[in-house]
Amino acid sequence: MRKPVIAGNWKMYKLLSEAVETALAMKPLVANANHCEVVIAPVFVHLKTISDRLEGSNIKVSAQDCAPEAKQSANTGEVSAEMLKDVGCSHVVIGHSERRQFYGETDESVNKKTKSALSANLTAIVCVGEMLGERESGKAEEVVKTQLLGSLDGLTVSDMERIIIAYEPVWAIGTGKTATPKQAQEMHGFIRQTLTETHGKETSDKIRILYGGSVKPENIKDLMAEADIDGALVGGASLEAESFSKIVNFNG
Ligand code: 13P
User: Fold this and answer.
1) Quick check: pTM over 0.85?
2) Any idea where the domains of the chain sit in the sequence?
3) What radius of gyration, in Å, describes the C-alpha atoms of the chain?
């Protein structure tokens, strides 16, 4: 019922020529992947070129962030959601843990950015996830619930149709430590329960919840077998066409 999403977050990797080369190499490798949506998220300055080069393919393009302000305004260094849409993006990642940890992103700014993304008709991939200490002290669910409530505050049921949630436990990002499928499923089930409380069961049943954190070709199948895991947000393993396409083709 929920179409899976496999999204590659390229973070601050690749020069333009390398990004184009990887994107073009991915194109034929994922061309038959009708079972899922395929998304890649290069850096801002590559978005226009990549989306032009991928036109007509089944790979969608996402930004990694957007401005909280929706309107064109005096905000040096920022890029609005409308501008992302204008250069060919369909998605935007919001509230990634690296932005929360290193760039002062808060649930409040995530909420504003999410609303801006929706007003520009972008699909927002809203990220949540606890730190290692929070998991070890038994606070993982509390932390994730607070992030969800703050990030999604004020969104209507119809807004939720263009929201994807990404659960990325910070301790599993880039560390090679994946949450076990069971650990991930427990949190995904909890997230869906929370979304049922806020927006009703009919809506929460439709929302895709992606897992992120050391996803690789070797572990995607077991993760995807869990009831509430609807895809993956992939970092390191999305940087090479071959490993990313193996993750996309997890059903093969
Ligand atoms: P890794 O797959 O490299 O652990 O990164 C996950 C991530 O942060 C995706 O957004």
Assistant:
1) yes
2) 5-248
3) 17
Whole-number pLDDT of residue 12: 98
User: Six-digit token pair at 77?
Assistant: 């260094």
Which ligand 1 atom minimizes the distance to the CA of 238?
A: 2
Per the DSSP assignment, residues forming a β-bridge with 104 are: none
- Contact 95 CB / ligand 1 (< 6 Å): no
Q: Hey, what CATH topology would domain 5-248 get? A: TIM Barrel (3.20.20)
Whole-number Å distance between alpha carbons of 183 and 169: 10
Angle at 7 between CA 140 and CA 224, to 5 degrees: 65
CA atoms of 223 and 181, how far apart (whole Å): 5
Does the annotation mark 91 as catalytic? Answer: no
Residues of the chain with pLDDT under 70: none
Q: Which helix (H) or strand (E) holds 193?
A: helix 181-199
Rounded to a whole number of angstroms, the distance between the first and last alpha carbons of the chain is 19
Q: Are 2 and 217 in contact (CB under 8 A)?
A: no
